[in-house]
Amino acid sequence: MAGQQEIPWQRIRKAGIVGVPPRAVIGALNAHGVEIHDLDEPLVRANLATATPFLPTVYCAILRTAVVNALHCQLDAVFIDIGPGKCDAARYTAQILAQQLTIPVITTENTDRERLGNPISESGLPLVEKLQRITAGVRVAEPPADPPPFVAPTASFWGVPPRDFAILELFPATTHVHGWTRCMENKTPADHELEMVVNTEVPTVFFAQSFCAKTALARHLAKRHPHGLYLDVDAHTTASAKAKIQAFLELSGATL
Description:
Layout: E1 14-18, H1 23-31, E2 35-38, H2 61-72, E3 77-81, H3 88-100, E4 105-108, H4 127-136, E5 155-159, E6 175-178, H5 180-186, H6 192-195, E7 204-209, H7 214-224, E8 228-233, H8 239-252
Parallel strand pairs: 1-2, 1-3, 3-4, 5-6, 5-7, 7-8
């Protein structure tokens, strides 16, 4: 839902989204022919420091990226999910953006419960392509009409989509996706039961963006997993993070 805010559809041609707004909101944007920009992704060349006057540097890089994009992209509105599928930090970010921007900042709360499946998460596509398709899918209300076929997993990536997709290049194509990214594909970002699902049969990297509250859950699940690696990365993937993943996957026998 979009609260009680009136949406000036006739004036919206380009809109930014933060998080995963409800399917009804995305469907309305699609129906009105609005060009949707995912502000969680790096869209402009501006430095992340541009967000510093508005958000502290200990906020996750995703929300700082969203602020940078909102400040620099030519948009007619911003739709931001502040419900249980996002975080309190997004709620505060929405309030700050509403005071800084001259366009409407429309808050939503995605509590959708209809599970639409996870064929991309369980496919044999390279992990980078998996997450590219999943994140691109947030801009449309319906699941893909031609989902890729299932493959058995040899590894798992649990967590949120990283700001820097370079971290995903180290994983084999037989990596399944779990955690909030799986919920994202399923279009139920507040489905915490689904977010907790893990595969204890394969080595799993439990990832969260630095300074995100999900780092606590990622570390907790990694400790309970028979073969888990906890990892958090800020804005860019470091050589150290890459080395940890590469060693973990090689030692666990998850082949490329």
